[in-house]
Design a protein that fits this description.
GO terms for molecular function: ATP binding; ATP hydrolysis activity; transmembrane transporter activity. InterPro entries: AAA+_ATPase, ABC_transporter-like_ATP-bd, ABC_transpr_LolD-like, MacB-like_ATP-bd, P-loop_NTPase. It comes from Asanoa ishikariensis. This is Putative ABC transport system ATP-binding protein. Keywords: ATP-binding, Nucleotide-binding, Transport. By secondary structure, the protein is an alpha/beta fold. The chain is built from eight helices and ten strands. The protein has helices spanning about 40-50, 70-80, 100-110, 115-125, 140-155, 170-190, 200-205, 225-230; strands spanning about 1-15, 15-25, 30-35, 55-60, 65, 85, 160-165, 190-195, 210-215, 215. It has a six-stranded mixed beta sheet with strand order 6-7-8-3-9-10, sandwiched between helices. A hairpin with a 2-residue loop joins strand 9 and strand 10. Helix 3 (about 100-110) packs parallel to helix 5. The longest helix is centred in the C-terminal third of the chain and has 18 residues, at about 170-190. The two termini are about 20 Å apart.
């Protein structure tokens, strides 16, 4: 079943086109890698699918809903409840502890403080960083920060997780550990994952790859059959 779809999506920044009539369908529970060189439109497509940006033309549908027509308030609520977003540099709130950062989406959704903290610490534990629950981001390693950011993105148990170069600032060993955890947790929850990356080793964790080039889906982009076998997918 298709959970997310882009139809003839166009997006420009001033006179510069970023996306040109992009069509994409994402199945429920699928881990999809969106790949391509820098500046090809990967992050723009992800941000349109997540409702962060509105396309200039075309449509974005989530289930039966055309979300690009929704107000910013409605799209923000969607990202707090059914969508999770993980950025390259985590973007944790510097003044808050790890547990407070992870609990934030729940608190914004009206969950009680005690319940939100319990859920936050539980997710930190699942991602192997419960020991930094009361530590602020400035006192953590890059890998710890990104695991906390992943916990924050997953704490609401979203139906779709959007990950924009989530390991771009990490070394290869830390990247592999984090991606392994994300894939495992996604399968446990049947979470759909859209993973933007320019790194073939990162893309190898996906079920399927879609390549972009100059704002278009590259018809020569190959699937990941060999990579799937390597990772037991």
């Amino acid at each position: 079943m298709t959970i997310l779809r882009a139809r003839s999506v166009v997006k420009s920044y001033g006179p510069t086109p970023a996306l040109r009539l992009v069509d994409l369908a994402v199945a429920e529970g699928e881990i999809l890698a969106i790949t391509g060189p820098s500046g090809c439109g990967k992050s723009t497509l992800l941000h349109c699918l997540a409702g962060i940006l509105r396309p200039d033309a075309g449509e974005i549908t989530y289930g039966e809903h055309q979300i690009d027509t929704w107000s910013e308030k409605m799209r923000s609520r969607l990202r707090r409840t059914e969508f999770g977003v993980l950025f390259q540099f985590g973007q944790l709130v510097a003044e808050l502890t790890a547990a407070e950062n992870v609990a934030l989406p729940l608190l914004l959704a009206g969950t009680g403080r005690r319940e939100a903290r319990t859920a936050a610490v539980g997710w930190l534990d699942r991602l192997g960083v419960a020991d930094v629950a009361d530590v602020r981001p400035g006192e953590m390693s890059g890998g710890q920060q990104q695991r906390c950011a992943a916990a924050r993105a997953l704490v609401t148990e979203p139906r779709v997780l959007f990950a924009d170069e989530p390991t771009g600032a990490l070394d290869s060993r830390t990247s592999e550990a984090l991606l392994g955890e994300l894939v495992r947790l996604a399968h446990e929850q049947r979470t759909t994952v859209l993973l933007v990356t320019h790194d073939a080793q990162v893309a190898a964790y996906a079920d399927r790859e879609v390549a972009l080039r100059d704002g278009l889906v590259d018809p020569t982009g190959l699937g990941l059959t060999a990579a799937q076998g390597r990772h037991g997918r």
